[in-house]
Amino acid sequence: SLPGCSSEAKELHNLLRQPHIQVSDALLSAHDSVAQKDYEPVLPPMPEELPDDEEATRIVCLVKNKQPLGATIKRNEATGEIFVARVIHGGLADRSGLLHAGDRIIEVNGFPVNGLEPEQVIQVVAKSQGTIMFKVVPITERPVHNQTMLYVRAMADYSPQQDPSIPCADAGMGFKKGDVLEIVDQTDALWWQARKLPSISACAGLIPSTNLLKRKQREFWWSQPYQPHGCIQTQEDLIAIDDKCVEAAGFRRSMRLCRRRSHSISQPSCHSRCATTCHGTLASPYEEVVRYQRLPQDTYRLIALLGPSGVGVNELRRRLIDINPGIFQGPIPYTTRAPKSYEESGREYHFTSREMFDNMVYNNKFLEYGEYKGNMYGTSIETVKEILTRKICVVDIEPNAIQAVRTHELKAYIIYVKPPSMDRLRQTRQDAQITTNYYINRPFKDEDFQDMEDAARKMESHYWHLFDNVIVNDSLQEACLQLLTAVRRAQDEPQWVPASWIRPTNQP
Ligand SMILES: Nc1ncnc2c1ncn2[C@@H]1O[C@H](COP(=O)(O)OP(=O)(O)OP(=O)(O)O)[C@@H](O)[C@H]1O
Protein backbone atom coordinates (compact mmCIF):
# COMPACT_ATOMS: atom_id res chain seq x y z
CA SER A 1 0.00 0.00 0.00
CA LEU A 2 3.03 2.27 0.10
CA PRO A 3 2.92 4.86 -2.61
CA GLY A 4 5.48 4.37 -5.35
CA CYS A 5 6.18 0.81 -4.19
CA SER A 6 8.43 -1.00 -6.67
CA SER A 7 7.20 -4.14 -8.45
CA GLU A 8 9.94 -6.19 -6.65
CA ALA A 9 8.64 -4.98 -3.27
CA LYS A 10 5.10 -5.96 -4.26
CA GLU A 11 6.28 -9.39 -5.34
CA LEU A 12 8.15 -9.85 -2.06
CA HIS A 13 5.08 -8.75 -0.17
CA ASN A 14 2.95 -11.32 -2.01
CA LEU A 15 5.48 -14.06 -1.46
CA LEU A 16 5.58 -13.44 2.28
CA ARG A 17 1.81 -13.77 2.43
CA GLN A 18 1.91 -17.29 0.93
CA PRO A 19 0.72 -19.99 3.39
CA HIS A 20 3.94 -22.02 3.32
CA ILE A 21 6.02 -18.94 4.18
CA GLN A 22 3.65 -18.19 7.04
CA VAL A 23 4.06 -21.78 8.32
CA SER A 24 7.88 -21.59 8.19
CA ASP A 25 7.67 -18.30 9.99
CA ALA A 26 5.59 -19.87 12.73
CA LEU A 27 8.12 -22.71 12.90
CA LEU A 28 11.01 -20.28 13.26
CA SER A 29 9.32 -18.35 16.01
CA ALA A 30 8.48 -21.63 17.81
CA HIS A 31 12.14 -22.60 17.53
CA ASP A 32 13.25 -19.22 18.91
CA SER A 33 10.96 -19.42 21.90
CA VAL A 34 12.11 -22.98 22.68
CA ALA A 35 15.76 -21.97 22.31
CA GLN A 36 15.35 -19.11 24.77
CA LYS A 37 13.88 -21.28 27.51
CA ASP A 38 16.03 -22.27 30.48
CA TYR A 39 15.91 -25.97 31.29
CA GLU A 40 16.44 -27.56 34.62
CA PRO A 41 18.59 -28.50 36.39
CA VAL A 42 20.64 -25.35 36.33
CA LEU A 43 24.17 -26.57 36.46
CA PRO A 44 26.84 -24.71 38.39
CA PRO A 45 29.20 -22.76 36.18
CA MET A 46 32.30 -24.60 35.08
CA PRO A 47 35.25 -23.79 37.37
CA GLU A 48 37.90 -21.65 35.74
CA GLU A 49 40.64 -24.19 36.26
CA LEU A 50 40.02 -27.89 36.49
CA PRO A 51 42.55 -30.00 38.39
CA ASP A 52 44.31 -32.49 36.11
CA ASP A 53 43.16 -35.53 38.12
CA GLU A 54 39.51 -34.43 38.12
CA GLU A 55 37.33 -37.10 36.54
CA ALA A 56 34.93 -35.98 33.86
CA THR A 57 31.43 -36.42 35.28
CA ARG A 58 28.08 -36.15 33.63
CA ILE A 59 24.81 -35.06 35.19
CA VAL A 60 21.91 -37.00 33.78
CA CYS A 61 18.44 -35.86 34.63
CA LEU A 62 15.54 -38.18 33.75
CA VAL A 63 11.88 -37.33 34.15
CA LYS A 64 10.08 -40.24 35.77
CA ASN A 65 6.91 -41.41 34.15
CA LYS A 66 4.94 -44.63 34.48
CA GLN A 67 7.59 -46.51 32.53
CA PRO A 68 10.42 -48.27 34.34
CA LEU A 69 13.79 -46.56 34.10
CA GLY A 70 15.09 -49.34 31.88
CA ALA A 71 18.53 -49.85 33.40
CA THR A 72 20.07 -52.33 35.81
CA ILE A 73 22.97 -51.71 38.19
CA LYS A 74 25.71 -53.82 39.72
CA ARG A 75 28.30 -53.35 42.45
CA ASN A 76 32.00 -53.96 42.20
CA GLU A 77 32.47 -56.03 45.34
CA ALA A 78 36.15 -55.06 45.70
CA THR A 79 35.70 -51.28 45.51
CA GLY A 80 32.02 -50.87 46.43
CA GLU A 81 31.49 -48.79 43.28
CA ILE A 82 28.09 -48.88 41.61
CA PHE A 83 27.92 -49.26 37.84
CA VAL A 84 25.18 -49.27 35.24
CA ALA A 85 25.07 -52.98 34.32
CA ARG A 86 22.86 -52.71 31.25
CA VAL A 87 20.55 -50.25 29.62
CA ILE A 88 17.35 -51.77 28.28
CA HIS A 89 16.76 -51.01 24.62
CA GLY A 90 13.90 -48.54 24.11
CA GLY A 91 13.55 -47.77 27.85
CA LEU A 92 13.68 -44.32 29.43
CA ALA A 93 17.44 -44.43 30.09
CA ASP A 94 18.18 -45.67 26.58
CA ARG A 95 16.04 -43.03 24.92
CA SER A 96 17.82 -40.28 26.89
CA GLY A 97 21.03 -41.44 25.17
CA LEU A 98 22.91 -40.33 28.29
CA LEU A 99 23.31 -43.48 30.37
CA HIS A 100 25.38 -46.41 29.15
CA ALA A 101 26.40 -49.82 30.42
CA GLY A 102 29.67 -49.35 32.29
CA ASP A 103 28.98 -45.78 33.52
CA ARG A 104 29.95 -45.42 37.19
CA ILE A 105 27.21 -43.85 39.31
CA ILE A 106 28.51 -41.42 41.90
CA GLU A 107 25.30 -39.81 43.14
CA VAL A 108 21.56 -40.27 42.79
CA ASN A 109 19.57 -37.13 43.59
CA GLY A 110 22.56 -35.77 45.46
CA PHE A 111 23.12 -38.94 47.59
CA PRO A 112 26.57 -40.48 47.21
CA VAL A 113 26.02 -44.15 46.36
CA ASN A 114 29.53 -45.52 46.67
CA GLY A 115 29.53 -48.45 49.11
CA LEU A 116 25.75 -48.84 49.12
CA GLU A 117 24.06 -52.12 48.32
CA PRO A 118 22.38 -52.08 44.86
CA GLU A 119 18.99 -52.52 46.61
CA GLN A 120 19.61 -49.32 48.62
CA VAL A 121 20.41 -47.42 45.43
CA ILE A 122 17.20 -48.71 43.88
CA GLN A 123 15.27 -47.47 46.92
CA VAL A 124 16.70 -43.98 46.46
CA VAL A 125 15.60 -44.07 42.82
CA ALA A 126 12.16 -45.43 43.72
CA LYS A 127 11.57 -42.71 46.34
CA SER A 128 12.38 -39.80 44.05
CA GLN A 129 9.46 -37.93 42.58
CA GLY A 130 9.35 -36.22 39.21
CA THR A 131 12.94 -36.14 38.12
CA ILE A 132 15.91 -38.31 39.01
CA MET A 133 19.36 -36.86 38.80
CA PHE A 134 22.34 -39.14 38.32
CA LYS A 135 25.92 -38.00 38.58
CA VAL A 136 28.00 -40.48 36.63
CA VAL A 137 31.53 -40.99 35.45
CA PRO A 138 30.96 -42.07 31.86
CA ILE A 139 32.63 -45.24 30.66
CA THR A 140 35.70 -44.27 28.66
CA GLU A 141 35.57 -46.85 25.93
CA ARG A 142 32.03 -47.59 24.95
CA PRO A 143 31.76 -50.76 22.83
CA VAL A 144 30.76 -49.97 19.26
CA HIS A 145 27.43 -51.60 18.46
CA ASN A 146 26.81 -52.46 14.89
CA GLN A 147 23.98 -54.80 15.65
CA THR A 148 21.92 -56.17 12.85
CA MET A 149 18.28 -56.81 13.66
CA LEU A 150 17.57 -60.47 14.11
CA TYR A 151 14.13 -62.03 14.18
CA VAL A 152 13.54 -65.45 15.67
CA ARG A 153 10.66 -67.77 16.39
CA ALA A 154 10.76 -69.22 19.90
CA MET A 155 10.85 -73.01 19.88
CA ALA A 156 10.52 -73.22 23.66
CA ASP A 157 8.65 -71.49 26.49
CA TYR A 158 10.49 -69.18 28.87
CA SER A 159 9.38 -67.46 32.07
CA PRO A 160 11.78 -65.03 33.79
CA GLN A 161 9.81 -65.39 37.03
CA GLN A 162 10.76 -69.07 37.17
CA ASP A 163 14.39 -68.51 36.30
CA PRO A 164 16.56 -67.97 39.37
CA SER A 165 19.60 -67.15 37.24
CA ILE A 166 18.20 -64.07 35.49
CA PRO A 167 20.09 -60.93 36.61
CA CYS A 168 16.85 -58.98 37.06
CA ALA A 169 13.50 -60.77 36.77
CA ASP A 170 11.62 -57.48 36.36
CA ALA A 171 13.67 -56.71 33.27
CA GLY A 172 13.02 -60.19 31.85
CA MET A 173 10.58 -61.01 29.09
CA GLY A 174 8.63 -64.24 29.04
CA PHE A 175 7.65 -65.92 25.79
CA LYS A 176 5.82 -68.96 24.52
CA LYS A 177 6.64 -71.43 21.75
CA GLY A 178 5.82 -69.89 18.41
CA ASP A 179 6.20 -66.23 19.49
CA VAL A 180 8.21 -64.12 17.05
CA LEU A 181 10.88 -62.11 18.82
CA GLU A 182 12.93 -59.18 17.58
CA ILE A 183 16.41 -59.47 19.07
CA VAL A 184 17.59 -55.91 19.54
CA ASP A 185 20.80 -56.43 21.49
CA GLN A 186 23.21 -59.37 21.55
CA THR A 187 26.12 -57.58 23.20
CA ASP A 188 25.98 -59.85 26.22
CA ALA A 189 26.79 -63.45 25.37
CA LEU A 190 24.31 -64.72 27.96
CA TRP A 191 21.43 -62.28 28.10
CA TRP A 192 19.98 -60.77 24.96
CA GLN A 193 17.42 -58.02 24.75
CA ALA A 194 14.32 -58.62 22.69
CA ARG A 195 10.83 -57.42 21.91
CA LYS A 196 7.87 -59.66 21.24
CA LEU A 197 6.11 -59.02 17.94
CA PRO A 198 3.74 -57.44 17.23
CA SER A 199 5.33 -55.09 19.74
CA ILE A 200 3.11 -53.05 22.03
CA SER A 201 5.98 -51.73 24.11
CA ALA A 202 8.97 -49.78 22.89
CA CYS A 203 10.96 -51.23 25.77
CA ALA A 204 12.80 -54.52 25.26
CA GLY A 205 13.21 -57.27 27.86
CA LEU A 206 15.96 -59.69 28.80
CA ILE A 207 15.87 -63.19 27.34
CA PRO A 208 18.46 -65.98 27.51
CA SER A 209 20.79 -66.19 24.51
CA THR A 210 20.69 -69.32 22.32
CA ASN A 211 23.59 -70.90 24.18
CA LEU A 212 22.22 -70.05 27.61
CA LEU A 213 18.73 -71.34 26.80
CA LYS A 214 20.20 -74.54 25.39
CA ARG A 215 22.13 -74.96 28.63
CA LYS A 216 19.00 -74.36 30.69
CA GLN A 217 17.08 -76.91 28.64
CA ARG A 218 19.86 -79.47 29.12
CA GLU A 219 19.95 -78.85 32.86
CA PHE A 220 16.18 -79.14 33.02
CA TRP A 221 16.35 -82.29 30.94
CA TRP A 222 18.88 -83.97 33.20
CA SER A 223 17.27 -82.76 36.40
CA GLN A 224 14.02 -84.54 35.52
CA PRO A 225 13.44 -87.94 37.05
CA TYR A 226 13.69 -90.64 34.37
CA GLN A 227 10.54 -90.92 32.32
CA PRO A 228 9.83 -92.82 29.15
CA HIS A 229 10.78 -90.64 26.20
CA GLY A 230 8.18 -87.90 25.69
CA CYS A 231 8.13 -88.18 21.94
CA ILE A 232 7.83 -91.91 21.85
CA GLN A 233 4.93 -91.54 24.24
CA THR A 234 3.19 -89.10 21.90
CA GLN A 235 3.77 -91.27 18.89
CA GLU A 236 2.29 -94.22 20.72
CA ASP A 237 -0.66 -92.19 21.88
CA LEU A 238 -1.32 -90.92 18.40
CA ILE A 239 -1.11 -94.39 17.01
CA ALA A 240 -3.50 -95.59 19.70
CA ILE A 241 -6.03 -93.00 18.64
CA ASP A 242 -5.43 -93.50 14.98
CA ASP A 243 -5.72 -97.28 15.22
CA LYS A 244 -9.46 -96.83 15.50
CA CYS A 245 -9.79 -96.23 11.80
CA VAL A 246 -9.34 -98.62 8.96
CA GLU A 247 -9.82 -98.52 5.27
CA ALA A 248 -13.27 -97.67 3.99
CA ALA A 249 -14.36 -96.71 0.55
CA GLY A 250 -14.03 -93.03 -0.09
CA PHE A 251 -11.83 -90.12 -0.88
CA ARG A 252 -8.19 -91.05 -0.32
CA ARG A 253 -9.20 -92.99 2.77
CA SER A 254 -6.53 -95.67 2.51
CA MET A 255 -3.83 -93.10 2.00
CA ARG A 256 -4.92 -91.32 5.14
CA LEU A 257 -5.15 -94.52 7.14
CA CYS A 258 -1.80 -95.81 6.04
CA ARG A 259 -0.30 -92.46 6.92
CA ARG A 260 -1.13 -93.06 10.54
CA ARG A 261 1.64 -95.65 10.56
CA SER A 262 3.64 -93.55 8.24
CA HIS A 263 7.15 -92.30 7.91
CA SER A 264 8.25 -89.05 6.48
CA ILE A 265 11.52 -88.45 4.75
CA SER A 266 13.03 -86.47 7.58
CA GLN A 267 11.89 -88.98 10.19
CA PRO A 268 12.35 -92.46 8.84
CA SER A 269 11.46 -94.08 12.17
CA CYS A 270 10.01 -93.16 15.46
CA HIS A 271 13.40 -93.24 17.07
CA SER A 272 15.08 -90.96 14.62
CA ARG A 273 11.99 -88.76 14.68
CA CYS A 274 12.60 -88.29 18.38
CA ALA A 275 16.21 -87.53 17.72
CA THR A 276 15.36 -84.81 15.26
CA THR A 277 12.38 -83.37 17.08
CA CYS A 278 13.47 -83.38 20.68
CA HIS A 279 17.18 -82.96 20.32
CA GLY A 280 16.52 -80.57 17.49
CA THR A 281 14.55 -78.42 19.90
CA LEU A 282 17.38 -78.64 22.37
CA ALA A 283 19.85 -77.70 19.67
CA SER A 284 18.09 -74.52 18.60
CA PRO A 285 15.61 -72.92 20.97
CA TYR A 286 15.25 -70.06 18.51
CA GLU A 287 14.66 -70.41 14.79
CA GLU A 288 15.79 -67.43 12.75
CA VAL A 289 12.91 -66.09 10.67
CA VAL A 290 12.51 -63.46 7.96
CA ARG A 291 9.52 -61.72 6.46
CA TYR A 292 8.65 -63.40 3.17
CA GLN A 293 6.11 -62.30 0.62
CA ARG A 294 5.49 -64.57 -2.33
CA LEU A 295 5.76 -62.69 -5.60
CA PRO A 296 3.08 -63.28 -8.29
CA GLN A 297 5.60 -65.11 -10.51
CA ASP A 298 6.79 -67.41 -7.67
CA THR A 299 5.42 -70.92 -7.24
CA TYR A 300 2.60 -71.18 -4.71
CA ARG A 301 3.21 -72.09 -1.10
CA LEU A 302 2.04 -75.55 -0.06
CA ILE A 303 -1.02 -75.49 2.21
CA ALA A 304 -0.74 -78.25 4.82
CA LEU A 305 -3.70 -78.97 7.11
CA LEU A 306 -3.44 -81.05 10.23
CA GLY A 307 -5.50 -81.76 13.30
CA PRO A 308 -6.66 -84.57 15.57
CA SER A 309 -8.51 -87.42 13.91
CA GLY A 310 -12.18 -86.62 13.26
CA VAL A 311 -11.87 -82.85 13.69
CA GLY A 312 -12.72 -82.23 10.03
CA VAL A 313 -9.35 -81.79 8.31
CA ASN A 314 -10.45 -83.79 5.30
CA GLU A 315 -13.89 -82.16 5.14
CA LEU A 316 -12.28 -78.70 5.07
CA ARG A 317 -9.70 -79.73 2.52
CA ARG A 318 -12.34 -81.25 0.26
CA ARG A 319 -14.58 -78.19 0.54
CA LEU A 320 -11.69 -75.86 -0.24
CA ILE A 321 -10.83 -77.77 -3.42
CA ASP A 322 -14.53 -77.89 -4.38
CA ILE A 323 -14.80 -74.09 -4.09
CA ASN A 324 -12.45 -73.70 -7.03
CA PRO A 325 -10.77 -76.81 -8.50
CA GLY A 326 -9.14 -74.49 -11.02
CA ILE A 327 -7.08 -72.95 -8.20
CA PHE A 328 -6.85 -75.67 -5.54
CA GLN A 329 -5.68 -79.25 -5.99
CA GLY A 330 -4.62 -82.20 -3.87
CA PRO A 331 -1.82 -84.60 -4.86
CA ILE A 332 -2.73 -88.05 -6.14
CA PRO A 333 -0.99 -90.64 -3.94
CA TYR A 334 1.13 -93.58 -5.11
CA THR A 335 0.16 -97.10 -4.07
CA THR A 336 1.35 -100.65 -4.61
CA ARG A 337 -2.15 -102.10 -4.23
CA ALA A 338 -3.95 -103.44 -7.29
CA PRO A 339 -6.42 -101.07 -8.95
CA LYS A 340 -10.11 -101.77 -8.44
CA SER A 341 -12.31 -102.21 -11.49
CA TYR A 342 -13.51 -98.60 -11.49
CA GLU A 343 -10.10 -97.06 -10.72
CA GLU A 344 -7.76 -95.53 -13.24
CA SER A 345 -4.06 -94.94 -12.72
CA GLY A 346 -3.42 -91.23 -12.29
CA ARG A 347 -7.00 -90.51 -11.17
CA GLU A 348 -7.52 -92.10 -7.73
CA TYR A 349 -3.91 -93.28 -7.30
CA HIS A 350 -0.71 -93.72 -9.24
CA PHE A 351 -0.54 -97.52 -9.22
CA THR A 352 3.00 -98.74 -9.11
CA SER A 353 5.07 -101.88 -8.46
CA ARG A 354 6.57 -102.58 -5.04
CA GLU A 355 10.03 -102.43 -6.55
CA MET A 356 9.41 -98.99 -8.00
CA PHE A 357 7.86 -97.82 -4.73
CA ASP A 358 10.86 -99.04 -2.69
CA ASN A 359 13.12 -97.29 -5.12
CA MET A 360 11.24 -94.03 -4.55
CA VAL A 361 11.51 -94.50 -0.78
CA TYR A 362 15.24 -95.17 -1.12
CA ASN A 363 15.66 -91.96 -3.10
CA ASN A 364 13.64 -89.83 -0.63
CA LYS A 365 10.94 -89.15 -3.16
CA PHE A 366 8.06 -89.22 -0.68
CA LEU A 367 6.77 -86.49 1.57
CA GLU A 368 5.29 -89.28 3.65
CA TYR A 369 4.64 -92.94 3.06
CA GLY A 370 3.44 -95.97 4.94
CA GLU A 371 2.04 -99.43 4.80
CA TYR A 372 -1.56 -100.42 5.21
CA LYS A 373 -2.86 -103.97 4.92
CA GLY A 374 0.31 -105.07 3.17
CA ASN A 375 0.19 -102.30 0.57
CA MET A 376 2.34 -99.22 0.42
CA TYR A 377 0.96 -95.68 0.02
CA GLY A 378 2.90 -92.46 -0.40
CA THR A 379 2.65 -88.80 -1.42
CA SER A 380 5.40 -87.88 -3.84
CA ILE A 381 7.28 -84.60 -3.39
CA GLU A 382 7.56 -84.26 -7.18
CA THR A 383 3.74 -84.45 -7.56
CA VAL A 384 3.32 -81.70 -4.95
CA LYS A 385 6.03 -79.55 -6.53
CA GLU A 386 4.52 -79.94 -9.99
CA ILE A 387 1.06 -78.86 -8.74
CA LEU A 388 2.58 -75.83 -6.99
CA THR A 389 3.83 -74.48 -10.32
CA ARG A 390 0.21 -74.24 -11.54
CA LYS A 391 -2.15 -74.30 -8.57
CA ILE A 392 -2.29 -74.12 -4.79
CA CYS A 393 -1.58 -77.63 -3.56
CA VAL A 394 -3.55 -78.56 -0.43
CA VAL A 395 -2.47 -81.59 1.62
CA ASP A 396 -3.50 -83.03 4.96
CA ILE A 397 -0.57 -84.35 6.93
CA GLU A 398 0.20 -86.12 10.15
CA PRO A 399 2.44 -84.27 12.64
CA ASN A 400 5.45 -86.45 11.81
CA ALA A 401 5.46 -85.01 8.28
CA ILE A 402 5.72 -81.38 9.46
CA GLN A 403 9.49 -81.26 9.10
CA ALA A 404 9.26 -82.76 5.62
CA VAL A 405 7.03 -79.94 4.35
CA ARG A 406 8.89 -77.11 6.08
CA THR A 407 11.43 -76.77 3.29
CA HIS A 408 12.82 -74.07 1.02
CA GLU A 409 11.08 -75.70 -1.97
CA LEU A 410 7.59 -76.23 -0.54
CA LYS A 411 7.48 -73.31 1.91
CA ALA A 412 4.53 -74.96 3.60
CA TYR A 413 1.98 -72.81 5.38
CA ILE A 414 0.76 -75.05 8.19
CA ILE A 415 -2.82 -74.68 9.34
CA TYR A 416 -3.86 -76.43 12.51
CA VAL A 417 -7.52 -77.41 12.69
CA LYS A 418 -8.56 -77.26 16.31
CA PRO A 419 -11.70 -78.78 17.81
CA PRO A 420 -14.15 -76.39 19.48
CA SER A 421 -15.36 -76.92 23.06
CA MET A 422 -17.00 -80.23 23.99
CA ASP A 423 -20.43 -78.54 24.07
CA ARG A 424 -19.98 -77.13 20.58
CA LEU A 425 -18.73 -80.50 19.29
CA ARG A 426 -21.94 -82.12 20.59
CA GLN A 427 -24.07 -79.43 18.96
CA THR A 428 -22.33 -79.18 15.60
CA ARG A 429 -21.56 -82.88 14.99
CA GLN A 430 -25.12 -84.16 15.51
CA ASP A 431 -25.38 -85.28 11.88
CA ALA A 432 -21.68 -85.99 11.37
CA GLN A 433 -20.24 -89.47 10.91
CA ILE A 434 -16.99 -90.81 12.33
CA THR A 435 -15.07 -93.46 10.41
CA THR A 436 -14.67 -96.53 12.59
CA ASN A 437 -12.81 -99.79 12.50
CA TYR A 438 -15.45 -101.83 10.83
CA TYR A 439 -15.92 -100.28 7.41
CA ILE A 440 -18.82 -98.27 8.76
CA ASN A 441 -19.43 -94.68 9.55
CA ARG A 442 -21.40 -94.10 12.74
CA PRO A 443 -22.50 -91.00 14.67
CA PHE A 444 -19.95 -89.43 17.02
CA LYS A 445 -20.08 -90.43 20.71
CA ASP A 446 -18.85 -88.45 23.71
CA GLU A 447 -15.78 -90.72 23.93
CA ASP A 448 -14.85 -89.71 20.37
CA PHE A 449 -15.01 -86.04 21.33
CA GLN A 450 -12.92 -86.76 24.43
CA ASP A 451 -10.31 -88.62 22.34
CA MET A 452 -10.29 -85.69 19.93
CA GLU A 453 -9.66 -83.22 22.73
CA ASP A 454 -6.88 -85.33 24.24
CA ALA A 455 -5.19 -85.74 20.87
CA ALA A 456 -5.56 -82.00 20.22
CA ARG A 457 -3.93 -81.16 23.54
CA LYS A 458 -0.94 -83.38 22.75
CA MET A 459 -0.55 -82.03 19.24
CA GLU A 460 -0.67 -78.48 20.51
CA SER A 461 1.86 -79.07 23.26
CA HIS A 462 4.35 -80.61 20.82
CA TYR A 463 3.84 -78.70 17.61
CA TRP A 464 2.13 -75.36 18.36
CA HIS A 465 5.28 -73.38 17.48
CA LEU A 466 5.21 -74.79 13.95
CA PHE A 467 1.63 -73.75 13.16
CA ASP A 468 1.26 -70.68 10.94
CA ASN A 469 -2.47 -70.46 11.51
CA VAL A 470 -5.08 -72.01 13.77
CA ILE A 471 -8.69 -72.52 12.72
CA VAL A 472 -11.28 -73.66 15.23
CA ASN A 473 -13.64 -75.95 13.32
CA ASP A 474 -16.86 -74.94 15.03
CA SER A 475 -19.35 -73.87 12.37
CA LEU A 476 -18.25 -75.56 9.16
CA GLN A 477 -19.19 -72.58 7.03
CA GLU A 478 -17.27 -70.18 9.24
CA ALA A 479 -14.24 -72.52 9.31
CA CYS A 480 -14.30 -72.71 5.48
CA LEU A 481 -14.30 -68.94 5.24
CA GLN A 482 -11.41 -68.71 7.68
CA LEU A 483 -9.53 -71.32 5.67
CA LEU A 484 -10.00 -69.34 2.45
CA THR A 485 -8.75 -66.17 4.15
CA ALA A 486 -5.76 -68.01 5.61
CA VAL A 487 -4.84 -69.48 2.22
CA ARG A 488 -5.08 -66.06 0.56
CA ARG A 489 -2.88 -64.57 3.29
CA ALA A 490 -0.31 -67.32 2.89
CA GLN A 491 -0.01 -66.67 -0.83
CA ASP A 492 -0.36 -62.89 -0.98
CA GLU A 493 0.71 -61.35 2.33
CA PRO A 494 4.08 -61.19 4.05
CA GLN A 495 4.64 -63.97 6.57
CA TRP A 496 7.43 -64.99 8.94
CA VAL A 497 9.25 -67.99 7.49
CA PRO A 498 12.50 -69.72 8.50
CA ALA A 499 15.47 -67.68 7.24
CA SER A 500 16.97 -70.88 5.79
CA TRP A 501 14.14 -70.98 3.21
CA ILE A 502 15.25 -67.67 1.82
CA ARG A 503 18.99 -68.11 2.34
CA PRO A 504 19.32 -71.87 1.88
CA THR A 505 22.23 -73.39 3.73
CA ASN A 506 24.05 -76.56 2.84
CA GLN A 507 22.66 -78.29 5.87
CA PRO A 508 20.13 -81.05 5.24
N1 LIG B 1 -17.62 -78.10 11.54
C1 LIG B 1 -18.26 -79.25 11.36
N2 LIG B 1 -19.56 -79.36 11.68
C2 LIG B 1 -20.22 -80.52 11.49
N3 LIG B 1 -19.66 -81.64 11.01
C3 LIG B 1 -18.37 -81.59 10.67
C4 LIG B 1 -17.60 -80.41 10.82
N4 LIG B 1 -16.34 -80.67 10.39
C5 LIG B 1 -16.33 -81.95 10.00
N5 LIG B 1 -17.52 -82.51 10.16
C6 LIG B 1 -17.89 -83.90 9.89
O1 LIG B 1 -17.14 -84.71 10.81
C7 LIG B 1 -16.82 -85.96 10.21
C8 LIG B 1 -15.32 -86.19 10.29
O2 LIG B 1 -14.68 -85.23 9.46
P1 LIG B 1 -13.39 -85.60 8.61
O3 LIG B 1 -13.50 -86.94 7.97
O4 LIG B 1 -13.05 -84.46 7.76
O5 LIG B 1 -12.36 -85.74 9.79
P2 LIG B 1 -10.77 -85.80 9.72
O6 LIG B 1 -10.24 -84.72 10.56
O7 LIG B 1 -10.31 -85.86 8.32
O8 LIG B 1 -10.51 -87.13 10.50
P3 LIG B 1 -10.11 -88.59 9.93
O9 LIG B 1 -8.76 -88.39 9.34
O10 LIG B 1 -10.13 -89.44 11.14
O11 LIG B 1 -11.16 -88.95 8.95
C9 LIG B 1 -17.34 -85.89 8.80
O12 LIG B 1 -18.63 -86.51 8.79
C10 LIG B 1 -17.49 -84.41 8.52
O13 LIG B 1 -18.49 -84.14 7.55
TrEMBL record:
* Guanylate kinase-like domain span: 300-488
CDD domains membership: GMPK, PDZ_MPP3-MPP4-MPP7-like
| A Pfam family of this chain | PDZ
Highest taxon of source: Eukaryota
Q: Where is the PDZ domain?
A: 59-140
Keyword Magnesium recorded: no
Q: Domain (SH3): give its ranges.
A: 147-217
Keywords assigned: SH3 domain
Q: Which Gene3D superfamilies match?
A: 2.30.42.10, L27 domain (1.10.287.650), P-loop containing nucleotide triphosphate hydrolases (3.40.50.300), SH3 Domains (2.30.30.40)
In this chain the L27 domain maps to 1-42
Q: What family classification does the UniProt entry report for this protein?
A: Belongs to the MAGUK family.
Name the record gives this protein: MAGUK p55 scaffold protein 4
